[in-house]
Amino acid sequence: MRKKGSAEPPFSAAEFSAAVTALANAFGDPTRREIYLYLREGAAGRTCSEVAEHFELHPNVARHHLDKLAAGGYLAVELVRGESAGRPSKRYQAREAAGHGLTFPPRRDDLLATLLARSLQMLPDDQAAAMAEEVGFDYGRALAGRMGQADGHRSMRTAVNAVADALTAHGFAAHTEVDGEQLQIISQQCPFGDAAQQFPHVVCAVDRGMIRGMLASLYGETLPHLAASRPAGDAACITCV
Q1: pTM for the complete prediction?
Q2: Residue 154 burial (CB < 10 Å; 0-12/13-18/19+)?
């Protein structure tokens, strides 16, 4: 607990810049601001189709705005499985704390991720990456189980879409694309922050393991590989399946 009279340490210029950039990305578009206010009115949240219908938008446009808000931490995303089998729908709900002042990067979570990654980096590279990917794999399988979908035997396309949805709910702002005959998962954000930049060898292995673990439960054993990454200077992280 902070002592009486003490003050929080000042945020650095980089942290302030990151907060302002995050706000601009989330609320710089007037339609996106209206969508956020609309979601604050609905305690139970709204689906993409409900938002698209309310604002007379194409579903892909509505989804783009919703994913931008979710990536900034302004919306909570819940995966809801319908009565029929198939891809679950996403329900978006405004976070109560999002509307009060500037929000800065989560220092404690970022510090924890950095310390864990640094600990693994003390091992030989191949051993550290293997351990990190195994941790991610186990978490991915558990995540698929909590989604109520760990039954396998579905199409690869359906499984990859479900993985992208789960990654978006975890702050990756992910979507799928098709490049020739190859499916790609494109993540526009990374919730690991500076840790991914400092220790990409370990953090990217965790991401790869999560995807492999979810796909193992939803479809079957696969060998996804990273074709591009933000730590390497690319615009997004691209995992090919």
Answers
A1: 0.57
A2: middle
In 28-135, DSSP assigns E strands to 46-47, 75-80, 89-94
Q: Write down the domain spans for the chain.
A: 15-99, 107-240
Architecture of the domain spanning 107-240: 2-Layer Sandwich (3.30)
Sign of the dihedral defined by the CA atoms of residues 76, 111, 229, 104, in that order: positive
User: What count of other Cβ atoms lies within 10 Å of the Cβ of residue 68?
Assistant: 22
**Whole-number Å distance between alpha carbons of 240 and 187:** 12
List average pLDDT for each run of 10 residues in the chain, which is 241 residues long: 46 52 66 88 85 91 84 78 64 67 45 64 81 89 72 76 82 85 88 81 89 92 91 90 89
The amino acid sitting at 240 is C
User: What token pair was written down for 49?
Assistant: 């189709």
- Residue 92's CB: how many other CB atoms inside 10 A? 26
For the domain covering 15-99, report its CATH number: 1.10.10.10
* Gap between the Cα atoms of 73 and 172, Å rounded: 11
- Tokens, residue 62: 């509505």
Q: Backbone phi, then psi, for 35, in 5-degree steps?
A: -65, -45
The whole-angstrom separation of Cα 91 and Cα 186 is 21
